[in-house]
Structures are given as C-alpha cells and as structure tokens.
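Let us practice reading a record.
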Amino acid sequence: MQKFRGLMSAIKRNLQTNPIVETNSQLTIQLEKGAEAYVAFEKVDENTYNLVHTEIPEQYQGQGLGRELAKRIFDHLIVQRSLKLQLSCEFLQRFYFQTLPTYKGHVIEDFTID
C-alpha cells in the first residue's frame, strides 16, 4: 500500500509540474514513461477552444487526477493564454460548476448539468 501511495504521489506531482504539450487536437501531460493524461479539444476560433474529452489512464482513475488535470488545463488556457472555453466534456462541465466563481466569465455556459 505504501508503494502505491508513493507512486500516486509521484504521478500527481508529474501532473502538476510536467509541461503541457499541445498538438492540433490535444493538450497532453506525461504522467510517467508510457502514460499520459490529456484533454481533447476543437479550436472554435483564435480565442476559443471547445474541450470535448478528458482522459486519464485506466490504472490511475478514481485517484483525483482528473480534477488535477482539469485545473491545470483551465489555468493554462484561461489564466496564461486568456482564451475562452466551451465545454462539451461532461467531466469538465462538472469541474467548472464545482469551482465557481473561479473561471466565471471565461467559459461559455451553453450547457446544463443533469
């Protein structure tokens, strides 16, 4: 159990500190060799990204890493790059509402949470 906690601590630290790599459709952070977390997006225009999917490797799900990934990506896109966001991903929609008012005014609220 202690070994697992140490591994998760290292994975969480990597998620918080490793660089965000942007491709044409993904923002990716390497968790460890061979394991990445990412948010898929569609570029709406020069100032707006639609975030469509969040992915954490199966072996790390349920450990709070999705929330850490969401915070890191929101801070990167909103705080550092001053972009607007649309949220098609339900996980990110829930994260947004749980963290209000932190990102209010930067997310286009064209969705509802059931």
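A brief commentary: The chain has one domain: 2-98.
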